[in-house]
Every structure is written in C-alpha cells, then in structure tokens.
C-alpha cells in the first residue's frame, strides 16, 4: 500500500473515532480505599449520587478491595463488589439494588463467571427496594440483562482492570470463550486474533508472529520476538508453551513492544496465559472428548480450601491423543501429531491478611511423532545424482510419503514457581521465583525418501531460572499524590541454559557416505562410490544466557479525563556459548569438522515509553503511544565450519507509534476497538538458508538493514439480540524490507516480510436459545488469511508461497445444570494449507523445499460436567 493510502486510512480511522463519541455518558475518576463493604457503599453513594438499596445482613463481614480507576460510576460498583459474591442491578436510572450472585442458572454468555463478573447478568432482584420500579424499560435504566456485553478483566498492566480501560492493543479470551470455541491449543487462538500468525514444523519449532514480526528460533542462541508468559512467568524456550490450554482463566495477546511492565522484554508483543487460581469455594470439573483420527482427550480440575481460608489448593490435568493423518507408505505407519499428558498443581497460603504465598508445579510429557511434513515441493533434486536410487513409486497425495524410517519426538517439561504478594500500608511487593526444565528428543528422515539418506537427530536439555521483584503503588500510598498516580517498578534476573546435541547423519545412500567411500578407495571426493558406513556429524551447542533488567512505569491523571503514562527499561544481556563440531570421519566434504568455537558477546539497551489517553465519555477512550523495543543478538550455531560459526548477529531494535480507540456503544451492546500502528525496525533479525563454503546448507539468523510495518486493526463484539452475538476482527498489514541485500547478491529491498499477509479477517456467530431446563448454543467461526510468503525472496524459491485460504469451524452444544454436551468440527471444508516451509538452499527456483501441512478436517463430541 502506498503512503498516501495509509495516510487516508489513518484519517478515516480518526474520523470514525471522533464520530462515535456521542453514544455514551460521562465518566470520572473515583477513589475508594479498601474498607468494609458497608462503608464503601456509603462512599459510593456520596461520590456518584446513586441510591443503593440492600438488606444490611447481605453485606455483613464483607470487605471491599476499593477502586482508584478512571471509570464510570457503574463500573465503580463492579470494582467494589469484586470477590464479594454479590452482584447488582438498576431498578431505575438512579437506584441500584444488591443481591447474592450465582443464584440463577447460567443462561447466556452475558452471564460472567466468578472472575469476569464486572458486568454480569443484571437479573431481577429477589428483594427489590420498596416503591422502586422493576420495569427497567419504563424507568430509563442505563443497563439491563439484555443490554450488556460480558466485559473481560485483564492484567496486561499488572493490575486488574477492564480491557476497555487499557490504552494498548490487547485481545483477550476467557476460559469459557475458549471452551465454547473448542480452542485447546495456542495456535488455535491466532486465527481469531487480528494481526497474529502461528505456524510450526513440529512441537519443538513453533513460529509465532504478531504484526509481521516474529522468529523461527532455530538456534539455541537466538531469542523469540514474541514473549510467552504463563502466570506471569516468562517461558524462554517457546516449545515449552505448546503444552495445550487447560484449566484456563484467560489468554491475553498484547501487541507491540512490552518491556516497561514485564520481567523479560519482548519486541513484537506478549502472550499472557493466566490459569485458574485456587479459591475458597469448592469447585470441580471434568470433560471427555472423542473424535476422528482416533482422537481422545480428557481434562479435569478440582480445588477449594484445604486448611480453612488460610490454605487453598487446585489440581488440574489434561490428556490428549490423536492418530496421524500423514502416512509413511514405506513402513505403513501413520505419523501421530498429538500425544501428551500434563498436570498442574497450585497451593495458596495465607499466613496473614496481608501476605499471600502461591506455589505452582507443572509437569508435561509429550510423545507425538516429529513434524507434520509433507513432500518436497518439486521433488528432491539430489535423487537425480548419478548412482542414487529414485523412489520406487510416487506418492498419491500430500498426506502420504515414503520415508525409510519413522520420525519420533519426545518432550518432557517441568516447572515450579513461588509467588509472594505482600501488601503494606503504602505499597505492595511481589516476588516471583521460577525454575523450569525442557528436555527434547527428536529424529526425522530429513530427505523424506525411501533411500537411506539423511537423518536429523536432536537432543536438547534446557533449564531456566528467573527472579522478579515488583513494587506497586496502593491507593493512598507513597507517591500517589492523592491517588492521581499509579506506579510500578521492578527488577528482573534470568539465566537460561539450552544444551543441544545435533547429529546430521548420513546413511549409506547419502552424499556423505558415498564421498567417504570414494576417498577410501583412492578416488576423488565425489559421490560416485556405494556407501560403506554411516557418517555421523555432531554439532554440540552449549549456551548460557544471562539477563539483568530494571523497569518501571507510572500513569498520571492530568485531569479527570486525561492520563499520561511514562515508562522505561534498562536491559543488559550476555550470551556465552561453546560450539563443538565432531564426526566419525575427520573430513568428508561438504562438512568441515572437527572444530570448537567459544563466544561471549553482550548487549545493553535503554527503551522508553510514553502514552497519552483521553476519555471522551463514559464509554469511549482514545490513546496515542510511542515506545521503543529491543531484542538481543545471538550466535550462528547451526553452521558446519568454524569460520561461519564465529559469526554473531546484532540486536534488533524498533521504534513503535500507535493510535487507538476503545468504545462500548449502543447501550453497551456493541464493543468496537481499533488501532493503527507504524513500526520502524533496524537490524531486523531474519532466518535464511545459506550454503557454506563446503557446500552444506544451513539455516542461519542474519540482520536485514531495515524494515517497516504499518497497518490497521479492528476488533469488536456485537450483541445483536438477547440470543445472537457476533465477534469480528480485521487486520490490514503492510510489512516490507526497506533495505535487505541477501548474501551480497540478491536485493530483497521492497519485498514483503515473511508470514505477513496484507489482509486477514475473522468472524464468529453465536446463537443461544433456552430449551426446557437447558440451553442450546450454536457457534460458527470463520477465519481468512491473504496469500503470503514463507521466505524473504517473495516466492522466488519454489513452494514458499501460501495462497489465500479460509478455515470454518462449527459447534453445537446443549447445557443443562452442571452438564454440557457438544458436537464440533474444525476445518469443516477440509482445506489443505501449509503452516510453514523449510528450504534447503539459497533463494532459487531450483532449491528444494519441504512443506508442513495444517490439520485436515477434524470432528468429535465432548461431554463435560462442572460443580461450582
């Protein structure tokens, strides 16, 4: 898109923002300190002018956590009632009554769960105020059960607040929404999130991109562009986060640089996975799913008080298995893409009223087959070399292949973390101490042919330790200046140690074995003699990453409507690595072994942030922000000779500009958010395939000189009727290299960034209808993604272009009491599409490429039960 068109888009976006302002009422800044609920309600009435009617016994012994947010009076009431078990309703335009929550059965998605009850169902009060009007339609009530959308509470800024009050672009999904959409993996979240792209070769090599920027993370010495946080703990090896979504409270997707509030800095965005926490009330749930490809899954959780209110616990598990859809016709084996079991346990100790200590343990074991690989696009040229055996027969389709061996993959995860939350009179202290281990073992037929060619074997052991401290302001505390300033300051320390042993093994029919046999026979180093031995080429990588950071952010209320946010971060990263190459043959071209390389580069960066938000009305807020981001450099530890392995790639930097709007319109029946952004990247890190001086292909990370991404995103939810809901999203993305000369030969300047489709959209329709004592819910969602490229050469290499495609998912559920039964189907139209590709050679129409295919049509049934 030209600059003129983008400018026009920004102008149009701004016009739409200001034209929407007339649809809502005023809001103001209210400060109510934590105190008994009865007294908090009296302060509420004085500040807002609302009349609150309730039986005194209803609030006896209840405490309110207070509020200091820049919100409406109605939202203030939500804050005051959080975690009290109470809800409220308007009986006329100025009168509110309270009642005990949870008395009514869950009827529709406007009914919020315990954690998302800020705008829950405003149902009829059992004890209405004397003389009050009960017909809200006649009284001019500002809200009713039919006019409110479920509002999600997020912690994107390290405090609980409505997603509509956060002046950054964030998409969020509650656990109930994930269940309704049958989303059980992080990669299923991407199609429903504007600007997010997820691809993977297998469970050890995910590829997550936000707004056109991401990382393949091939090297042990490389970083991801998008950070993954599980219960606020950073996950360094992204494969550790692909253990499935179970017992989830919420998933948040934050876009743009995140560093002034997070322990580990992320340049492209962050994904927060928040799991369900222990509660005093007993709760339990379980569900079982069966589907095609012999799919079977079981999930469950149980929690409650163990030692009164001082000790709470929760235990959850997840088991899933699916047979393969890619068949190895040589051995008759169907490659299994899914088999895993996970357990998560939590204990919450409350030794005093001001101290919470939470201990979490995660264990996960996965044993699927390695990779979802299809055929080499255009065939494998090495088979045409004289003396090589051609495949005995051609494959009938892209889901059937001839491998001489079956692939394997094993992954074991262990994690433990202790979180301490200590409230003082003038501030609060949070400490998060975490340790994790990831063990991976993988073997796959690299040539994907029935000949005894190349096999890639990888064993990796990775450990990670992190310590984070945060000091946060509290209402009425230090440096809050009459509660007009919220602040947070933190320090973070990380040590990550990935150790990887790779074996590029040449079989008897491989070029390595044939060259060795020719040399042993006194001939030239050429693949002309039959192989006599397997050639094992070992690459042993030992890396230690150490990161120390200090960060902070303060939000200042300049007026009752305007807030200024200032933040900054200092990061110092050091990476020490030892890279050793050995072989059972001293020298077999094109492998140049043995060698040892030792490196210890370090980098530091200071990254500021400033944003300004303005609340035009009760339900419309706009914001503008400037931020800088940083991603450290790394090693080229995927090389086959010492000279190339000594290369170090530089850090990546970004300057990010963003403008956005968040609105709740038409009596809160429509939530509409939009943002426009412009990112200027320097030294963008790009994965590419090079051929070494000896002729061996290797995947490396290099720095492109500059790149720009700019675009527009729209996301919304519309409550069309009491029973019909529409969720939708759209992303426009213009992501190009401003300067990129590949290997001093090819000019990729002006090319699209990989995995950066220009247009994408998603829509989901949900219809709910009470039937007898239960509820029927139908959901259909569709996501469409424009054509895009997997490599920077913009389609020069055969098979690295993905044409535009769409995915349709549907489900039909019946709920009655604690039971839920659903039938579902994903990729209903059985689209065949690539999740990613892997090229073995430099950009060229003759370079051979391996494709990895997405799941075909899957379907099944789920039976669930819950007690709350």
UniProtKB/TrEMBL annotation:
Residues 1-24 form the signal peptide. Keywords: Cell outer membrane, Ion transport, Iron, Iron transport, Membrane, Receptor, Signal, TonB box, Transmembrane, Transmembrane beta strand, Transport. It is a multi-pass membrane protein. Residues 378-828 form the TonB-dependent receptor-like beta-barrel domain. It comes from the Bacteria. SUPFAM superfamilies: Porins (SSF56935). Residues 116-147 are annotated as: Disordered. Residues 163-270 form the TonB-dependent receptor plug domain. Its main location: membrane. Pfam families: Plug, TonB_dep_Rec_b-barrel. Residues 130-147 have a biased composition (Low complexity). GO terms for biological process: iron ion transport. One of its GO terms (cellular component) is cell outer membrane. InterPro entries: Beta-barrel_TonB, Beta-barrel_TonB_sf, Plug_dom, TonB-dep_rcpt-like. The keyword Signal applies. It is found in: Cell outer membrane. Belongs to the TonB-dependent receptor family. This is TonB-dependent receptor. It comes from Elongatibacter sediminis.
